[in-house]
Each structure stands twice: as C-alpha cells, then as structure tokens.
Amino acid sequence: MSHVRTPVVPHSARGRADTTPPPDHHPQDRSREADEDGLGCCRKRVRTPRVRAARAANRELLRLYWSIGRDILDRQDQAAWGGKVIDRLAADLRDAFPDLRGFSRRNRHYMRSVVEAWPTEADFVQSPSARLTWSHVTTLVTRLDDPQLRTWYAVQAVRQHWSRNVLEHRIARRLHARVGAAPSNVTATLPPPDSDLAQSRPAPPTSSTTSG
Fold first, then answer.
1. Could you tell me which of 145, 150, 157 has the C-alpha nearest to residue 198?
2. Are 186 and 158 contacting, i.e. CB atoms less than 8 angstroms apart?
3. pTM
C-alpha cells in the first residue's frame, strides 16, 4: 500500500501572513497621469488670459457702439443734422477709417436702438447684456420691447452659453412663458465674470458679424 507524502512546511513559514505588497501602477502610468495634470494646468493658464483679453475687447467694442449710438441720438435732436445724421456719420467714419468695418447703416441703427434701450452708459455696461456679444445685444433690442424680458433672456444666454441663433429661437418660442419664469431679480443668478462658467461664453464679434 502506497503512502502519499504531505509536503513539509518550514517552521519559520508557519502562521506567517502574506506580506507581499500589492502590485502598484506601472511607473509609466504614473508619469502619464502627472503629464496630463501638468498639461491641464498649463492649458488653463493659457486659456484664462486669452478669455479675459477677448472679454475685454468685447466690452470695449460694446462701449464704442453704445457711444456712437449716443452721438446719433444727440445729433438727431439738432436741427443741423436732422434725419440725415446716420448717413453723415457713416461718410465721416469711412473717410477717417477706410479699412474699418462694422459701421453699416443697419448696424448704426442698432447702435441707436441700444441707446434707446439703455439711455446711459452705466445702465448698459452694468446690464447682463454687456456680457454678451454685439449680435446677441442686437437680437435682444430688436426682438424684445420689455426691459425685464431682455434682462431675463440675457441672463439665460450668459448662464447657458447660447449662441445668437439659439437666443433668437428661445425668444421666438417664448421660453419665459413656457417655463413660467419671473423675469425680475435675475441678475443675482449670473456667475462671477472670472468663473469657469463665464469664461465659456461666446467670443466677441468680428467684422463679419457686424458689417451687415
């Protein structure tokens, strides 16, 4: 009769817990994760000043257009200019800045409409609309007569990063009535200007968007 021999476990190994360390990530994996973190921080450092510069340029463009609209309204009140003020202003700007676009007759009418909606510069630059592009602003003044509704839609456009086409669609569909929104006291819902949400806003208008 054959006997099966039981392997002998050394005494020093008996009752000893397994102290083998768990497998760690490969060094290349750790290096790749560190590289991604570093690149992410670098991208944010590059993106932030670019967005701030674009926002500043957009803000100055809006203030320029508002100031021209103010001039148009003021000079139209003068008998010497009368109803021809827009045409005379256009000729003067073309002579002074032959390569500058954005001062078409339609756009100059928009400038006047913006001043009619926000009579003082402080009213305009402190409004949520001043955080949008010029094409957004012209949509607000041409599609909406109610100042509170303009504010409500401007806030939604900033918060939800609407393009101008989306803004026009929402206004046409009367979104404020569909959601039962109260269009007052909405500016408090805006993100701070330097927040990630605000930095995702559309780029400022170019000559192609303002020359029509």
1. 157
2. no
3. 0.65
The tokens for 127 are 């409004």
Separation CA 89–CA 86 (nearest Å): 5
pLDDT in tens, the chain (212 residues): 555 565 555 555 555 555 555 555 565 666 666 556 666 666 666 667 777 888 889 999 999 999 999 988 888 777 565 667 777 777 787 778 777 778 888 898 999 999 999 999 999 999 999 999 999 999 999 999 999 999 999 999 999 999 999 999 999 999 998 887 655 555 545 655 544 434 444 433 333 344 44
Per-residue tokens: 43? 């991208």
Token reading at 81:
């200019």
Residues 18 and 5: their CA atoms lie apart, in Å, by 25
CA atoms of 179 and 169, how far apart (whole Å): 15
User: How far is Cα 79 from Cα 77, in angstroms, rounded to an integer?
Assistant: 6
CB within 8 Å of 102: residues ≥ 6 apart: 205, 207, 210, 211
Q: How many residues are present in the chain?
A: 212
Count CB neighbours of 193 within 10 A. Answer: 14
- Which residues neighbour 200 within 8 Å (Cβ) at sequence distance 6 or greater? 161
